[in-house]
Amino acid sequence: MKQNHQEFQVGFIWWAIGIGIFGGFMLGAHIAMQIGFNLSLPRALDVWIQTHGHLQLAGWVGLFIIGVSLHFIPRMTSVPIEKRSTLKIILFLTVSGILIRANSEFWAPYVENEKILKFFTLSSKIGNVIEFLGTLLYLALLLKSFLKATEFKRKGFNLVKPYFISFIIGWLIYWLVQLFEIFLDRYDWLAWNKWSIDVFMRLSLFSISFAFSILNFPLYIHLAPPRKILKHLGYVYILITLIYEISSAPIYYEALQIFDSNLFAILSDVLILSLLFVSGIIGRVFLPDLYLAKSPFWRRDGINEVITNIEKKPRKGYSDYGEFGKFELLIYSAYIWLLISLFLDLLARCFTLFGLSIHYGDDPIRHSFLLGFITLLILGMAQRMLPGFMHKNKIAHKKFVFLTFLFGNISVISRVLPTLIPHYLSGFGYIVTKFLLILFGLSGFISIISLIFLFLNLRSTFKG
């Protein structure tokens, strides 16, 4: 029976890119420029950083995830969204809430008039509630899709079920903490906010990225179909990560002191590495010929493909003919940055476990993950997946795909590497440090260039 699914709500993508370019990335670029070129920092630096982070997570990454998942998951579960107006309501609530909250919080420190300050404080809380309602409606739609799926569809979904459970848990925790900003003292909430970001990264962002990867990579890059062990490892990952997050929460419970949060963070990292190796993703990145699926999943084993047009063959290891550009470079580099993030986190935590100190903090770990893994994966998947969502059979500008790969990776290197080099070096080391600081100062603007190329490419594809 034919089902009537809603058309792709492309507004989520345009707003995600717009908020990324003019909001999150722009604020981050400005802060990095001031540090890199030794300029005076903003008076309300903590507010700048907080607003930058929320715009990146809720705006750039969050809106992209909402838009793609509300198109992909109802089709995967064969549970159509009944009304297109529901998508428009979610888009309106999330975008308006994000913009109201971000602008109110950003401008409040620069206001001296008490009445205007009270207005900004109130509007910030209103924006917070509005974006929470939007994300709550989004979660309700996802849960409806999963719960109403037929038995046949549930069996197909079973392998990735733990990762979607993890995603929903992390998403709900993050947005509840954001909502509690209304009730908590600012300094208490900042501690909770930092904790919720880590929850969001581990439980939501990694899980949804991994789930979409193992569902789509068999088609896109001929990765072997997911194995049953991934389901069991997924549940173990949820358990270990939840123990770590609960034990590291900024609240003291004596019962939680039996858990070493640092040890469970290490176990969580090791489980991510295990998932990457067991799924074959890492093998596909570093040993592409060895880990190439011998028979793509849409063909029956033992039946040779009959090539009707010998002049036009799919690229080896891919299902396309090059009409999406070298999108795989973005995907491979994204997973390399995930490995770098895991290595840096494991190294720092092992040092801490043995009572040793290390000169870098959370910054290079977090940006390797968010700017390296998540952003590059979005840049790659967007230019491979979204043309189909828009009913197009190719990307408009294949060269732009490579340019997003080039500028995207340069921006991550420029943002992460300077934070790993000690700034107290002398001689030649001092010259290197100064050069890296210049790169650091430019890193945000280089990121914006990659997003501009993404927008131009998707916009041309949409209109083409």
Automatic annotation (TrEMBL):
Name used for this protein in its record: Uncharacterized protein
Record keywords, A-Z: Membrane, Transmembrane, Transmembrane helix
Presence of keyword Transmembrane: yes
InterPro entries named in the record: Cyt_c_oxase-like_su1_sf
Domain of life: Bacteria
Residues annotated as transmembrane: 12-33, 53-73, 85-102, 122-143, 163-180, 200-221, 233-253, 265-287, 334-358, 364-382, 402-425, 431-456
Record lineage: Bacteria, Pseudomonadati, Candidatus Kryptoniota, Candidatus Thermokryptus
SUPFAM superfamilies, sorted: Cytochrome c oxidase subunit I-like
